[in-house]
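Minutes, project check-in
Item: structure for the 223-residue chain
Input as provided by the requester:
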Amino acid sequence: MRKKFYDNYDEHYYEERIIIRSKKHIIRFIIFLKGNGEKNIKWLDIGCGSGHLVRDATEEGIDAFGVDVSKYSVDNAVVKDRVLYGSMEEIKFSDGFFDVVSAIDVVEHIDPKNVKKALFETLRVLKPSGLLILTTPNPYHGDDWIYDLTHVCVRPPKFWKEVLESVGFEVKIAYVPAFLKYYVGIAAFLPDSVLFWLEEPLRYILGRYMSAKGRLYILARKR
């Protein structure tokens, strides 16, 4: 019988629950959104696991770091000098340090009474107009999340919109922040500057599709 419940984020947890997928489609989108090649973008990936997004972002010229509560992940990081032990509730970086913070499938693991504190922390470390990327299970669709007892804060889209706005974010719900040509692994002939506008409606369509499949994408901007 496969193990489905976990007491901590150890090797068994990562073997059972974590699938490594490239985030190149998101990285390229953010580079464009922050200035189409802007230099010195600083990115923090919370719940970074072994740091694959951090590694991929640095390869694209981004000054990226990651934090994770799993000692196993930090010890086995693919970029050890850039992955630190830490949590979303207490981010050990200074105010306004990052242009982008991502938390991919993280907020559902936070004690509900600490959610607002965690989001205030992301707001604190972001620069003005900085971006926050969140993904989390949508309880209205899908049920895979119930097989992980560390999922203690699975909430509907309305909850996340309201709490994010309450701490100081502008929010896009069910919106996938990505260049779809990188998502599907093809090199379109059109430049990103053109594809941004052509793909914009598709990002909402894909967001609704992903939400209906059980995974909610959120893009928020610090006011």
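Outcome recorded: The chain has one domain: 11-222.
No further action items on this chain.
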